[in-house]
Every structure is written in structure tokens, then in C-alpha cells.
Amino acid sequence: MAAGTTAGTTGGGAPGERPGERPEERPGERPIRVLIADDQPLVRRGLALILSPDPAFEVVGEAGDGEEAVALAHRLLPDVVVMDIRMPLLDGVEATGRLAREVPGCRVLALSTFDMDEYVVAALRAGAYGFLPKDISPEELVAAVRVVHTGEAAVAPRLMTRLISTYVRTPRRPEPPVVTDAGGLTRREVEVWRLMATGLDNAGIAGAMDISVSTVKNHITGVFGKLGVRDRAQAVIAAYETGLVEVGG
Q: What is the CATH code of the structural domain delimited by 32-156?
């Protein structure tokens, strides 16, 4: 499939369907629509060959740069965009930011040649739901696309914390941060937020606080809403930027 081409699309549409409108999604019936953006044709082809045989996925298009990825996302309305971070014309970080603003229905899974890359944090801050190094296995790619499609962050908690603690600058502060009551967070919510930022998953947070996993999930929902962040990655970035946790702390 060449860059910019589509698969499984028709020129018409269902009766009564407005131009640009997604078909009605019925659980178990519609495959996850994936757009692949990478400036290397062989990488695009390899990613497509991993996903296409699985009936749970439909690779609807390929893009060779960020500008083309944004344009195709507007036209094809994919569920997930697998986005290389470093591309010509418009890099993956800028493209991710535009998609988050302009096509919020699609979710970006960022790809990086290196697992320690400052561009990864920039992409997460811009709105990516997760990231993967390019040397991942096919099974890991499939799992990550599924996770991102559900709206969860496809980043291993400890790897995400290591990346963010390396590339996000923690402000110097002589006194405790003001974030303990930011946005009306309760003490429990602040503690959940802090533990999340240290790399614990939901089960780890539940064990550390001696509460149930469902209660942890409720607290995390409250944290996201009060901080005005969309996902776990952005919450962890905010924890470092506000000084709730510190690099090496």
C-alpha cells in the first residue's frame, strides 16, 4: 500500500450517513480502523502486514509524513493512528498535537526508534495515548493498539516514569508544592496521584494504600477530572512539573 492510499473504503456511504461521519460502532462488529504514519515505506509495510491479517483491525491508510497523516485522519477518521515521532515536513509531535485538537476521536500511539527519547514525552504531552519502541514484537503492537483504542495509556508504568523523570524538568522548590489541594483534590487523590507518578500500576497503588483496585480507579478518575488531564501519562507529567514528585525522589 503506498503512502496516502486507503484500504476497505468506498466512495459512497450508508443511506442517511453525513459526509465525514463515522459509521455507527457496534461492539464486536466493526474492526479498529488504523492509520499508519512513518516516513520509511518498509516500516509502514511491516506494520500493516502485522495488523491487516487480524480481522479485528482495518488498516485504512498510510502516510509518509506528519502533514499527510493529519490530512488523512481528517478524511478517514481512524480510531488509532500509529505515528512515528520523527518525520519530515511535520514531525509526529506536532502532528499528534493537531490531531488531539482537530480530530479528537482518533487516538495516537507514538513510535520511537529509541525507548529513551525526549520526543516521546513531548508526544505524550501533546496528546498521544502511548508509545512503543520500534523493536517491539508483533504481539506487543497488536496489544498496544487494542489498549489505546479503549482509551487507556499503552505505556508500561515504570518505563513511562523513567522517561518522564529523565526529560521533564522538576521545578526547584524550597517548600512543599501547592498541588496538594490543586483543583480540589482530596488527600487520598493526591496520594493516588503521587503513587501513580512513582510508577505503580492500579494493583500496586491498591496494595500500597490498602484499598480495592476499583476504589483506585475511582480516585484516578477524580484526579484526571480535577487536574484537567486526559490520561495517566499526562497526570504523571503534571506530577513532575508541579513538584509533587521529584527526579530520583
A: 3.40.50.2300
Cβ atoms < 10 Å from Cβ of 78: 26
Q: Which of 136, 137, 138, 130 is nearest to 157 (CA)?
A: 130
> CA 49, CA 125: separation in Å to the nearest integer?
29
Alpha-carbon distance of 211 to 72, in angstroms, equals 45
- Rounded to 5 degrees, what are φ and ψ at 116? -115, 95
| Fold annotation for 181-242 | Arc Repressor Mutant, subunit A (1.10.10)
Does this chain's domain 32-156 share its CATH topology with 181-242? no
Give me the torsion for CA of 76, 78, 84, 89, rounded to 10°: 30
With bands split at pLDDT 50, 70 and 90, how would you rate the model's confidence at 163? Answer: low
Domain ranges of the chain: 32-156, 181-242
Model's pTM, two decimal places?
0.63
Alpha-carbon distance 154 to 141, whole Å? 10
- The lowest-confidence range among 131-135, 138-142, 171-175, 191-195 is 171-175
Q: Which helix (H) or strand (E) holds 152?
A: none
